[in-house]
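Hi, here's the filled form for the chain we discussed.

Project: internal
Contact: R.S.
Residues: 145
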Amino acid sequence: MTRYWLTPILGYSPLILGSERIHCTPLADLEAFRLIASRKHPRLLPMFKAGLLLSDDEDVCGSELVELDLSELEDIVFNGDPYHLSHCAEAFLDCLLTRQETWELVSSISDIDWDDQDHDVQWKQQWLRWIEAGCDVIILREDGY
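And the returned structure, exactly as it came back:
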């Protein structure tokens, strides 16, 4: 089973994933949510495989030694103890829209566009709160659960 997490990025040096991650269920709501976001901009709400955030070796994406558990209720810090950020993750993060671009695009989506799904409106509101607090927001895909 695969889990998807709406995830705030609290900082970049080192990368810090915020503890307030939202487990996005049901999947159909998440798919609708991402579709609406992608209509505004294809990179508005990017997704990355959580397992590829880690690296045991600077030439490899993914880790055989350490696993992430995004359900933990703590910030996840990639400072080398125990998590090393992969070069694949660095490249992904370099392609994120600016916070200002993201805020303008997300703000321009009417609540009516979210198909009256409670999750969608709540996720959008949280997304905007995170942006206003200085966070970028991504979806992390966690396989194997």
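Let me know if anything looks off before we file it.
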